[in-house]
Each structure stands twice: as C-alpha cells, then as structure tokens.
Amino acid sequence: MKTEIWNGHIIRFVDINDEWWAVAKDVAEALGLKQVTRAIHSLPKDGVTTSKVIDSLGRTQDVNIINEKKYLPHGIQKP
User: Fold this and answer.
1) Residue 75: CA atoms inside 13 Å, Cβ hemisphere, count?
2) Is the distance from CB of 66 to CB of 51 less than 8 angstroms?
3) Which part of the chain is the Bro-N domain (predicted)?
4) Are 4 and 50 in contact (CB under 8 A)?
5) Fewest CB atoms within 10 A around its CB: which of 22, 55, 70, 76?
6) Is residue 20 part of a domain?
C-alpha cells in the first residue's frame, strides 16, 4: 500500500498485479462527495473491485477500490 496527498486529502492505494487501485472512499472525500457507492456506480465494473486494507486503527476493512490508470483521470467527478 502507498499513500498520496491530493487536494489536501490522503488517498490510499493498493497494488494489485502491478496496477495501483485507489480507495474509493478517499477519492470521494477528496472530491467532496458524500455517497461513495453512488459515485462509483457510474464506473465500468472492471474499474471497481474490493480489497482488504488496514485502517488507521489497525483493523482490516473491506473497501471499494478504483483502478487508477484506467478510471481516475476521468472517472468519478462531482455532479
């Protein structure tokens, strides 16, 4: 896992098969979106999946992740 700062927000990334996937919740918060599921619903299914990540309290969480290379440059946007 790696993190990057975008718009003043920490975005977590997971490496899956040498491709970086961003945690959807982090991206949505950086864009000011409150409904993550609704925001990612418009993306193609091959660009969204789930992964296990460790949260700030050390707990394992299942999260939605977005393929960075394919969908973040023009994917989730503010309505």
Assistant:
1) 27
2) no
3) 10-73
4) no
5) 55
6) yes
